[in-house]
What we know:
Two copies of one chain form a homodimer. The first copy, chain A, is mainly alpha-helical and 247 residues long.
Amino acid sequence: MTVQNLLKALKDGGGDPDLATVDDVTGHNTSRLPLASQVAITIRDMIVQDLIKPGERIRERQLSVELNVSRTPLREALKILEGEKLIALLPNRGAIVADPAPDEIRELLQVLGALEALGGRLAAENARDADIAEIKALHYEMLAAYSREDRLAYFKLNQQIHSSIMNASRNSSLIETHSHFNARLYRVRYRSNQRNAKWHEAIDQHEGLIKALEARDGELLAARLSSHLGATWAKVSKEDYAEGSAG
Amino acid sequence: MTVQNLLKALKDGGGDPDLATVDDVTGHNTSRLPLASQVAITIRDMIVQDLIKPGERIRERQLSVELNVSRTPLREALKILEGEKLIALLPNRGAIVADPAPDEIRELLQVLGALEALGGRLAAENARDADIAEIKALHYEMLAAYSREDRLAYFKLNQQIHSSIMNASRNSSLIETHSHFNARLYRVRYRSNQRNAKWHEAIDQHEGLIKALEARDGELLAARLSSHLGATWAKVSKEDYAEGSAG
DNA sequence: ATATTTTATTTTGTATGCTGTATTTACTTT
DNA sequence: AAAGTAAATACAGCATACAAAATAAAATAT
């Protein structure tokens, strides 16, 4: 290890925290990331935030000039997103934004339920008191948003609570997989939250989640997280059948 | 839709099944796949079959000439494999084959356990009688391999049984995620199988799995699949501590 | 006018070459 | 001789250029 490397390492890891650009979604440090990874983050955000609609085609050349990069890193980014199932890559026919059918959504919610159940068990075991306190705080913030009928804030806090529980599991593989599945379902749940008249039902369920976590009752928390997602499916499917699946 | 396209569609989908090359691992049709995907399959096999060792560096130029492709599709393949966590991509420093630490293996087995538990529950619900019969047949084949002390055959049949149970769940997202996690753990479990003196312990457990599946007792099957993987971790960790983790 | 074939255009797939970064080697200094 | 510095080399990152495939458009035939 030479001095110049040491200096670089210092600059990278140590000081200047404001130089490091941190992504909101993944939390990754994006400053010295290859273009492909940065582009992947950008497109992921565009998809999750519904700036590109499901089923919509992604034209390489067009998007590459929009993002001001060449097609090479863009194509690499698309491979990444294909792995996350946020897009589908049809050979010789380009990429389209993933558009899960109701059946697939049901499948995804089942898996997500299993992941959250495991997360709950582990969280009850591994969460620090500060983690639980923070989750409780988020819960109260969510109640505040509910009281103000601020659906967007409510939704985001809801998501944050679930992510926080997963983070408390201290199982990084689980956390990452969970966030992938969550991203695939983000839009569905967002729409569901915006439309559903009985959005208060989730409040009671969340109350139960917090109680189970405070009691560090892993089995109870796991069960409640699972049934919570079961309720999500009930809502989503009802909406879908009510208006015929298409967006 | 023109006639030439119709003819092509016919040729692709319909006839000439022998023209289609099907991959052993993923079951994907590989004949008309882009190079990047084919390369990804090749490298994945090399990793899972331990032709490239964990921690080993992957040189783009070198591998590209070995596989007779340019660096562009190879790099795209590496992005795919990074998403599957089979390799790690260090910015400006190339790719290395993933080498999960004991802690990470424990985490992975926990997630795999949750996935298999869900798979078991769904399989008990959705499996057709023919599926169960086939799984039973595989079980007896495994017993035969055990009797002959053919560890390789035993191991492969063991894997096949677990995959078959997952397939019987009829949840494609679950099946795919399970296979990804399984691939990440393949080498670990393979080594464990080769070394472990008490490999007969798994026989009794498998007997229990089949019984639960035949009875279509989802909860029991789920519980047994989980504890089965718990036993795997017990073995793996023991071996690791016994000889100090390095391969 | 409709349907089919042919041509043109657009778009994806792949290879190559250049640039910047990391690592190694040789050299200098203490 | 050990540590530090500077040059050289190897490598990954990216853009451009070309090839092949798919789609769209025009022309021809029915």
